[in-house]
Amino acid sequence: MGIGFRSPFGAGGGGNHQEKPAQDNTSIPPSSSTPSHSDNEAPTKYNEKSSATQENGQTQIATATDGHPAAGGVIVEGDATQLQRGLSGRHLNFIAIGGTIGTGFFLGSGTALSKAGPAGCLISYVFVGTILWSVMVTLGEMATFIPTAGAFSAYATRFVDPSLGFAMGWLYWFSWAITYALSLTASGLIIQYWNADFNIGIIIAIFWVVFTAVNYLPVRMYGELEMWLSSLKVITIVGFIIFGICVAAGVGAEGTLGFRYWRDPGPFAAYIEEGGTGMFVGFWAVLIQASFAYQGAELVGVGAGEARDPRKTVPRAIRTTFWGIMFLFVASIFLIGMLVPSDDPGLLTESSNASASPLVIAATRAGVRVLPDIINAVLLTAVLSAANSNVYSGSRILVALADEGQAWSVFKKTDKNGTPVVAVAVTSAFGLLGFLNLSSDGGKVFTWFLNISGVAGLITWATTCLAYLGFLRAMRVQGLDRDVLPYRSMWQPYTAIYGLCANVLIALTQGFTSFMPWNTADFFAAYISLILFVILWAGHKLVRRTGLVKPEDVDLVRGRLTCESDREEA
């Protein structure tokens, strides 16, 4: 690897700690299920020099063993990352919504309907929603106990294996960096809807400058801008839901629709194969597509390290984000299935602008002719909002990697506003790869880059659930009960196990169409991200000689919120 990373478990990292709880000097009794202590054996304690208390209503953050508090509660060995806690709960909500609702929903829902039919499409989105819930609440337990910027790789490194955190963190960062280039390119294609001769390169350059500059603003101002950009998307979807209900009830040119298209052409559609096999293939294809559509909701965890009072704002943001996205997606998919038949030829168009949106197709069939321009404007807002989130999330992942000693420490450098200036610069530079799409050969390279980013979200979701299982095991071995967590979710650890298994299954099968029939190019395009993940993991393990982190050596101190008041349950 040749970077010369320091060990992620240095002076304040692993080892056998002795801890005293925040409120008194007695040990925290282990849970009844803790297997690590016999009846005659005292539970493991920590010996942290400072833990969280309540002073003037403010939560204090546990420090590392050298006794120095970190700015904003992000504790690292040596110098701390000076990120500022300027994000409120509503900022976290809209950052996640902005990263989730994009062209994948506005345009991709049409192809989903054509592959699986209205019922198959709806079931797929609901099912993936349950997987998202398992990931969100699992992440929430860790993010409120140890809130850190770019939480995913840090948790995998601390609780499972440094090589796992390294591979997942760098792959996840790349996915957001390259998606920034995609968002900039998509903005040019959308603008060409109004003027086909407009140069996409000019659009890429203008918006690259704008959104790179926006990400150098103080995080509170960034959060406000993202909130307003995302609000336009939410308002549009809510407006479509109201419009869809009215059209289904008989307001449109086609009269009362009801479940007409569920009867003909039917609730399920066959994809690739005929009959029942084709219907299952269609359902599974949309299951994978829905997984990609939901990705971005986990950005609540990325912003936890910059959230004000994370023990309160993060759980609320998780609940609001999950239920908000679920409602918007599921309600819209349900109504699209009522308004547009799954065999409508408009669903199969290759266009990247409003003409390919099922929202526009539904409006056109209802006799509304002015909607395409409105939807195209919303699509532009959607990709610009996504571009804004891409740079933010990617830069914070770099900070997390640097915090864990898996990237250059220069990525932790911040300005007076707490913005990680180098991390933002490196992440935003990848947006310039959007210019590759201006040539045919470059476009092929760019497509491969996008294939890498597509499955990175599934890997991140699966790794988050695996990290939680390591986190839970470490708590039990070290004598900490889940009662000390500021936020607890239901049915753990089974919720995390469900999320882990489901995401691994989808990640392994997402390229199944390359086998029907066999196509070598499609196979590598589908699985290049998994191959790269294994290469990163194995390469780091060979160079650093890392092993699985023993539960008794897991660092549960650094950056920890130990105030136990106001605990929230899912």
TrEMBL record:
GO terms for molecular function: amino acid transmembrane transporter activity. It is found in: Membrane. Residues 49-58 have a biased composition (Polar residues). Residues 38-48 have a biased composition (Basic and acidic residues). Its main location: membrane. Residues 91-547 form the Amino acid permease/ SLC12A domain. It holds the Pfam family AA_permease. It comes from the Eukaryota. It is a multi-pass membrane protein. InterPro entries: AA-permease/SLC12A_dom, Amino_acid_permease_CS, APC_YAT. Residues 1-58 are annotated as: Disordered. The keyword Transport applies. One of its GO terms (cellular component) is membrane. The chain crosses the membrane at residues 92-113, 125-149, 170-194, 200-219, 231-253, 321-340, 374-392, 421-439, 445-472, 493-512, 524-543. This is Amino acid permease/ SLC12A domain-containing protein. Residues 26-37 have a biased composition (Low complexity). Keywords: Amino-acid transport, Membrane, Transmembrane, Transmembrane helix, Transport.
